[in-house]
Please model this.
Amino acid sequence: MFKFFSEKKWYLWSWIGSFVILSSLWVQVKIDVKINEWFGEFYDMIQKALTAPNAITIEEYWSSLLSFITLAAMYVGLAVLISFFTSHYLFRWRTSMVEWYHSVYDRARKIEGASQRVQEDTIKFSRIMESLGTSFIEALMILIEFMPILFGLSISIPIFFFGDWDYGLIVGALIWSIGGTFFLIILGLLLKLVGVEYDLQKKRQLIEKFLLLLKMMKP
Model:
């Protein structure tokens, strides 16, 4: 799996590509913070206009909308480009894995469905990395970037059962999210949900073989 990062053939895609993806995710998070700040400034301006007539000019209003359009266009354009680049990046990673499996295929060629496993498992891995990997990294970046803002908003906010607790809102959210994650992990292990997809895949293959056998037996 990690041959992609150690083989000279893939250095450009593995290391430079990873840097490009991480940098673009960080830029997206920065734009997201700017958009969040824009919402606060825009609604403050609207409240000011409703409170005192002629408190803002039409030029200020359109200028604020133009700044949002600029940020949104940058975010959408960057998201499209990085999604396209990530797909190519994962395709190269999958190619690297398939090439390694083919180099040691003599050890597994007697296993039933080995060639199918090489293709399907690498596809599943690349899709998991695309969805889970990038989402996890982006979530960490968002948490780091928004943490100072959340700390500032949660000062002296009363928390249920705890009363006035400095930074209680953000601490409570972290405890709830981390605790909920560990709870779901433990629940999955207790209910043996980890192997459900594998069991379903085995049953699906048995059904396909059975249907193929029936088709061959027809005159």
About this structure: Helices lie at 3-6, 11-51, 58-103, 114-153, 168-190, 196-217.
